[in-house]
Write a structure and sequence with these properties.
alpha/beta; 11 helices
């Protein structure tokens, strides 16, 4: 039994005769008659009572009529679903984003653009620091990530430069530096600094430390925070000052003043879009295409 034969069978049922059905399905009448007989032989039962005034369904024919419609409808739905999956119109894609960059216009634009183009894709966004993102990308539990990397030479990953960022100084709003900003890092050498942990973003941490060694600057760290949002909260509470990606200023943080210093702006902190090239998800490929535009 073939789907084509079921289609012919329903055409005969709905048109009431082989001749009318042949015109509808664009198949010669003898060929259509043969297909109906082959279907009956395959099912080992008669589907029609043939008489001079036309054809009438048997009990078996009426049962097949109901099942044939359901089978053809299910086939059409399945073909549509598979086509949609193949085109990335439906499916699921998971994206990690460094916590700081959820508010950055370029990242927000990417998320909104993908949602507008592919509204039926289950788009899962996880605010994750670069270290955890890299681990999840490499073990395949995350489809793509927006994170800090040194370059695009990452084992098992492909990466595209998404944004060039730099560093910025965050101080409490009631700090004297908020009204009389420092002009160089040595002006804040004796300040209480709030710092992040290396393991949460190794590439970012190492690049920043190398820049400070080049400047012969050693911050006096007295507090640590789990991520940049935590650091900003601690700055707002007056626990110290912090050096963060300039993108942090996109996040509205009452009680914090952001200050630009030429020595910090000289430290490029590149943000990358990364994914596993062996991931064959069409939904992911559409996100990659949008991100690389």
């Amino acid at each position: 039994m073939e789907f084509r034969q079921l289609h012919y069978f329903l055409a005969v049922v709905e048109e009431g005769s082989v001749s009318a059905a042949s015109r509808r399905v664009h198949v010669a009448q003898p060929a259509l008659t043969r297909q109906i007989r082959l279907l009956e032989e395959d099912l080992e039962t008669r589907l029609f009572e043939r008489h001079a005034r036309g054809m009438r369904l048997t009990v078996a024919g009426r049962a097949l009529q109901e099942e044939a419609r359901e089978l053809l409808d299910r086939r059409a739905r399945l073909r549509t679903r598979l086509w949609s999956l193949g085109q990335g119109v439906i499916g699921r894609v998971s994206l990690g984003v460094t916590v700081t960059h959820l508010w950055v216009p370029e990242v927000a634009g990417l998320l909104a653009g993908y949602r507008d183009r592919y509204p039926q894709v289950a788009f899962e966004v996880f605010p994750l620091l670069s270290g955890p993102q890299l681990e999840r990308l490499q073990d395949g539990s995350l489809d793509a990530g927006i994170l800090y990397l040194d370059d695009d030479n990452q084992p098992g990953l492909e990466a595209r430069l998404l944004q060039r960022d730099h560093l910025i100084l965050a101080v409490p709003e009631r700090s004297p530096w908020a009204t009389e900003p420092p002009t160089r890092l040595q002006d804040v050498a004796n300040a209480d600094f709030i710092w992040g942990f290396r393991e949460v973003s190794p590439h970012y941490y190492d690049r920043m430390q190398a820049h400070f060694r080049h400047l012969d600057f050693q911050p006096r760290v007295v507090q640590y925070g789990a991520d940049n949002i935590a650091l900003l909260g601690m700055v707002a509470a007056g626990l110290g000052i912090a050096i963060l990606p300039a993108a942090s200023s996109s996040h509205p943080t009452p009680g914090v003043r952001f200050l630009r210093l030429p020595e910090l702006e000289a430290c490029e902190m590149s943000l990358w879009f990364a994914w596993r090239p062996d991931n064959d998800s069409p939904a992911l490929h559409n996100l990659v295409a949008l991100a690389t535009q």
